[in-house]
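Task 17 of the worksheet. Students: predict the tertiary structure of the chain below and write it out as structure tokens. Keep your answer in the requested format; marks are given for formatting as well as content.
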Amino acid sequence: MPETDLLWMSALVFLPAAFAVGLLAFPARWVEAMRWWALFGTAATLSVSLCVVVGYYSMLDTRLDKSGRPLHSYQTNLDVRADQAAADAARDIPRYLSDDWVARRPWIDRPLHADFALGVDGISLSLAVLTALVTFLAVIASWKIDKSVKGYLALVLILETGVLGAFLSLDLLLFYVFYEVMLVPMYVLVGLWGGGRRRYAALKFMLYTLLGSVGLLVAIIMLYFVNVRDFVDRDVFMTEVKKYQRANPHLSPEQAAERVEIHTFDFVTLSKVGRASMLILSGQEDRLGVKEKLGDEPTAPDGRQVRLFAPGVKRDDAIQRLKDQTFCTKNFQYLIFVLLFAGFAVKVPIVPLHSWLPDAHVEAPTPISMILAGVLLKLGGYGLIRFAFPICPWAANELAWCVGLIGVIGIVYGAFVAMGQTDFKKLLAYSSVSHMGFVVLGLAAWSAGSQSQYWGWGVNGAMFQMIAHGITASALFFIVGVVYDRAHHRDLNKFGGLYEPMPLYSGLSAILFFASMGLPGLCGFFGEFTVLMAAWNYSPALAIPAVLSVVLTAAYLLWAWQRVYFGTNPATATFPEMSPREAAVLVPFALLAILLGVWPGLLTNWMEPSVAGWIENMSVLKP
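Model answer:
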């Protein structure tokens, strides 16, 4: 019998795919029933995601720190829970009533040692809930799709499974599988249900994304050949020794223990190797230590020793084995980081790997643009936070200023190009390039020691920015879809006067425009503000152009608002007000934009403990 948390997380990931399979049983003429079935499937997935939130919070409340406060105990960190799950699996300990929200089962045990490993923390779970919400509202927005409805809805549901699986995966190979699964549905959705240049846009999307995926695949293959024997629990190590001895019966247990190597796709273990390598490469190998027991904090009470080796390991031997590996060389660190960064940069997207995004948005149907802007772009930022920085911290630290500069270029370039657009969707697409640049800048503001709190602000701001952008960008693309259904064009210069015939639509649009602009009191402000604070502490040279870009953002959004809603226009005077279905999509977005603007702690209190653990693991490595 599998543990409870495995069932909940598996349900969250695979429930949309199950509903997609269920669509096959519907006769072609039952179009309305298919829509309701897909809507029920996305609603059920959203409900399950909220149940996982409740279960995760319950786990946090049962694991308190020394002050008796929930949420901040080291034992709640994903690293510790993942280590314990791996050790329990090696000991064959029954975990039927597990509530640690980490689950691990053998998947491709031989020869790859890949696991079906799922887990949640404040970083991944917040993005999973955003995915479930945006997909649910996108299905409501899809009600007018009348071409091959069964295929369209099935692809949307499979796309949701791919994204949720990527956010919850703890195994790099499993992550890559889910990451690739979502490409095909998006390619087909744009290529078959898009506009006049849909085939070109779909092909461009696929080529760019596959180019990034090749970089990820190469990096994953290279990482697999890292020997992680000194970083895994001793029970895991002894299990591998026994397997090696069975394959080589002429060797004694001692000889087998000397020769055995352990390779893994587990990113938690690989991140420990990366952190240990940073200490060695930065001349701090004297700080490397051995844990006394599983679950010890990596930073010793003296604040100097960093305990990354597993209990029972001989420290000097472990350091020498690590120094003998190619992974612990500067060139290899640079190569792996660049491959990971470039692979995820395509998804962010980062200039100059962004040009697929405007074409994809312009040609995609409105609901797919909502998912693309609200969810898929976040996979790039998530990959940087979860994989690129923790696995290659030395290279990330060395290249931090360059990464920040790339983020600033994206912020400024996206804002300038957006200002010159007359196509409503293209303006929003370049706006996404600009807004996602803040995510990259926040991650790059690497500070250590007493200044590490500012980097914490930057990473918290980057996470908040992804959620806020997911809300506002999805809503704004739906706003374009509403007016396109009436005007049948997206030319900003041909609109005008929408406020009079559509006051409710205009009022909700104003909230979301100002939220995207970063107006205080709305969701777009907090993330950008904290990123700019962190960037100023790290490098004023990076912060100043990012601050000035706020004026550009206000300029192009206000100008777009003026051209669409102000004045009088006989061509728009007879447009009908929003329908109840359209209002059902837009009102939740507007309410969330206000709620997270007035009460950002609703989200930061959820994410901050996981971000704090992430910062603690990384900032202590810097000399």
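Marker's comment: Confidence is low (pLDDT under 50) at residues 66-72. Residues 452-487 form the longest helix (36 residues).
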